[in-house]
Design brief:
The complex is a heterodimer of chains A (about 300) and B (about 260). Chain A has about 300 residues and is mainly α. Chain A has a two-stranded antiparallel sheet with strand order 1-2. In chain A, strand 1 and strand 2 form a beta hairpin. Chain B has about 260 residues and is of the alpha/beta class. Helices cover about 35% and strands about 20% of the residues of chain B. A six-stranded mixed β-sheet of chain B has the order 7-8-9-4-10-11, sandwiched between helices. In chain B, helix 3 packs across helix 4, helix 3 runs parallel beside helix 5 and helix 4 packs across helix 5. Chain B is globular, with a radius of gyration of 18 Å. The chains are: A mainly alpha (about 300), B alpha/beta (about 260). Chains A and B meet through helix 7 and helix 8 of A and strand 7 and helix 3 of B.
Amino acid sequence: MSAGSRRTGATSAGRRLVRVASPLAALGIWQLLTSYDVDLWLRFAQFPTVVEVASALGDRIGTEAYWQDLGHSLRRIAVGFLLAAVLGVAAGTAVARSRWAADILGPLVEVVRPIPAIALVPVAILLLPTNEQGIVFITCAAALFPVLVSTRHAVRALNPVWEEAVLTLGGSRARVLFSVVLPGALPGIFGGLSVGIGVSWICVISAEMISGEYGVGYRTWQDYTVVDYPGVFVGMATIGALGWLTSTAVETLGRRVTAWLPRPTAGVTAVGPARAASTPASLASASASVPVSAVPRPEKEPVP
Amino acid sequence: MSTVSPSVVSAKPSAPTPPTASAGAELALHGVRLGHPDGVAVPGPVDLRIAPGELLTVVGPSGCGKTTLLRTLAGLLPPLEGRVTQDGKPIRRPDADRALVFQHDALLPWRSVRANVELPLAIRRVPRAERRRSAGEWLERVGLGGHARKLPHQLSGGQRQRVQLARALAARPRAVLMDEPFGALDAHTRAGMQDLLVEILRGTGATVVFVTHDVDEAIHLGDRVALFATGDVLDVPHPRVRDARQAPDTAALRRRVLDSL
């Protein structure tokens, strides 16, 4: 046991080094390509340098508008994602456990699921009184299906012996639900939540770009329309950092509530969220690691 | 937690030795045809009466449908035909009166050993402090007092079965249905578990139906042995006496059971 943990300790130190070095190297290459205006089929002449982006970020961080945008986006994500989590777990469990729910909800889910959440913008505009609610609706719709589908699978995959054991101990249906089904499905549910939070970011940013007032996505689009490229990259870095932060939070919570899982299985759950974390950033075209690590650096610079 | 004073509470479920008045349940099959949920019939006993407080072992080869019998008695599975009763009343659904001990892996893996044993008490709405104390006592009785905080996967197979025993008995069921509970254990552990079972059941008064494919186990543990395929029920001359293995009447019974398989 102790030998094993020492070995993983050594590897994790090495891995940590690689993890820090990789984004730093990416930033270095970015800076070199852009400061020398390299033109090798890919054209870096108009591309902002790391330093320009960093100083733009430094300027923005001092303004109230930046934090206001951040707060708006975070609130939309929080409300939309939490709604999706509750609805997705409830509907997924119902579909997996009840033939009626499966017959009624199943076809609806399968028809609506392939529609990209961002394509629901017209629906949101028609249905909901305010833009704000529309954005939350789209965020929720985006996260709903990953959560629902993975909950459904996780509930169906439960060992039936657990339920029978609780039944023969005198447990009611509610007891089975709360003592067997939900705790047993949690590892799978958190897989869905990790994917869901990533997709939520993609959609909240896209929705803000289309119809928002305030918000990181709105600001990023605004900067693009006025050809403020460093500002666009600040937006991307912010989105990347926020996405990374929220999916880390989901992942940490997931690991904590599924601490009972035997070791090797716990390692598998750690893989999903890491991929989900990169999704919102990859939408913003740049590689995920670049905007994420770009954030802490400029904070050292003096802010006027 | 602190609302109930422990001295008052400790009276009832704490002392597992004195049998309660309504201890054992009488279980019976009346003209039953056992069957899987998909409707496939399982050949097995048609009529069977298990007396209150009796330990009936059921022998049959692996895969012959013994589990189906237990699940039917538990109320998890309706019979294709006939009636299954407890004390004359039909069994329609599972009940805390009839605990089922599974072959393996029936502990909830996300609950600690203690929380697993507390589960039936929680279902019966026993106050938390009392639950904790009672579960601790049961774990002591099965020799796992020091493992209360562990998770099931951190225990050996034999230890997990002991936890299952403690969990099944903690809420003082009137019947315990055991599905080859020691089937996956090595011979040495198995003998120890049989002794533990005998000791732990003493004084509970519960009716026990113990299914096994091991003839020696069946003859050692049972008051009577039921042959699954024919439905014949044979009296065991020296129930739960280890030294009686070589006795002529035990040997005769053993031969008879083996012939029937």
